Amino acid sequence: MFDKQVYINRRLNLRKKIRSGLILITGNSESPMNYPKNTYRFRQDSNFLYFFGLDLPGFVGVIDIEEGKDCLYGNDFDLDDIIWMGPQPSVNELGQSVGIPCTHPMKELASTLQRAIRNGRKIHFLPQYRAENILMIDRLMGISPALVGQYASTELVKAVVSLRSIKEPVEIAELDKACDVGYLMHTTAMRLAKAGVPEQELVGAIEGIAIGKGYMTSFPIILSQNGETLHNHDHSQILTSGRMLLTDAGAEITSHYASDNTRTFPVDGKFTPVQKDIYSIVLDALNKGIELSKPGVTNQSIHLETAKVITAGLKNLGIMKGDVDEAVANGAHAMFFPHGLGHMMGLDVHDMEDLGENYVGYDDEISRIDQFGTAFLRLGRRLQSGFVLTVEPGIYFVPALIEKWKSEKINSSFINYDKAMEYIGFGGIRLEDDILITDNGSRILGAKRIPVTIEEIENIVGKG
Ligand code: GLY
After folding, report:
1. What single DSSP character describes residue 40?
2. Measured in angstroms, how far is the CA atom of residue 260 from the centroid of ligand 1?
3. Which residues is 38 bridged to in the sheet?
4. How far is the CA of 54 from the centre of ligand 1 (A)?
5. pLDDT (tens digit per residue) in 421-455
6. Percentage of the residues of the chain whose pLDDT score is greater than 90
7. Lower CB count within 10 Å: N or C terminus of the chain?
8. Model confidence over 235-270: pLDDT tens digits?
9. Is residue 64 within 6 Å of ligand 1 at its C-beta?
10. pTM exceeds cut of 0.85
11. Domains observed in the chain
């Protein structure tokens, strides 16, 4: 948790962006796995963490715009809780720790909201993704669960996105720390990889790095020799000589700031010429993406520039053909690069995705391009100093996609299908760094960049 002044300032900044009414920020409750007392690891709501800081279940924060007052609603632990959990602070002590002297038992929240409704005041709340909180809003405000999404406040969503998009120095320090753990996770996977090792053993080793520090992963680890499946959570294969291994993994540290990196490397620790060819194109696209990332540039244009690097590289290998700009304008690159270049990152690995991807990644100026591949770009708008985002180009040979496009002759003036078919079985390569947009450009987060050049990779893979 940061100093209480951080949360006081954030709530003050939020108030300045909302005209009137009450703002309700729901914290999360425990979520049961298989019976009520056997719960998943608790994960606080990121908006609640951002404005109210408390990493405990069972709280709701209320910001009253007209009264200029913030209150915390939650129940004190009773003796039974204390017997099982040890001594606990009171709700009032917790409130004071984040600059909120006004605390109430949860049962008083209903009357606060009902009074506001009777007085015709607007109650702003964010889109909800947990069933318990949807039901709570139904109970407190009489909005049927099916309609809760429609009643979420767009004014509040836009205000929260505008604040959370620009990372403060204290947040950047945490993101650097999360990326340092990511560095350890990825270099460990590289060191331990060799033919004969089960993929699952690598997953356990790198997840163990996060857990061993009291952290968690920022999303379920993606680690597979079938890297062409973009989010492959099947770790059942044994590392095999001649194949490449894709690892997409990150840490979520105690403060809940995340990292998210991808590296792909040969199981043997030495690239074959074919692997080197494809890898070099992805690395060029990654470096181009980072080089272009600076304030004032749209991430949509950077995505398209990296698509051109990929198209030009594949054209050099005879896999694509024709005019590069025209190929990208027609979306031909998306057969090999069928996803977006990156997303915001912060307290969520896909930062603020609960608030609506278009509010986070697009605006009145830049709207989503509705074309296969580019349509999956999560962040398209103009970059600003303080944004934290991923840059993650890739080249994949997805058999089902190649076969479909080939049979339907899609973009056949830009794709040499006979040549592309030769790469079926190659898998996929993605490379991903996390960057901070600075006043003049960008920098990679974390003390050291995870090995990425061919030489760096060959010097570490399989070295134990
Ligand atoms: N790196 C995993 C994801 O972006 O979903």
Report:
1. P
2. 7
3. 35
4. 26
5. 999 999 999 999 999 999 999 999 999 999 999 99
6. 99
7. C
8. 999 999 999 999 999 999 999 999 999 999 999 999
9. no
10. yes
11. 4-165 (3.40.350.10), 169-460 (3.90.230.10)
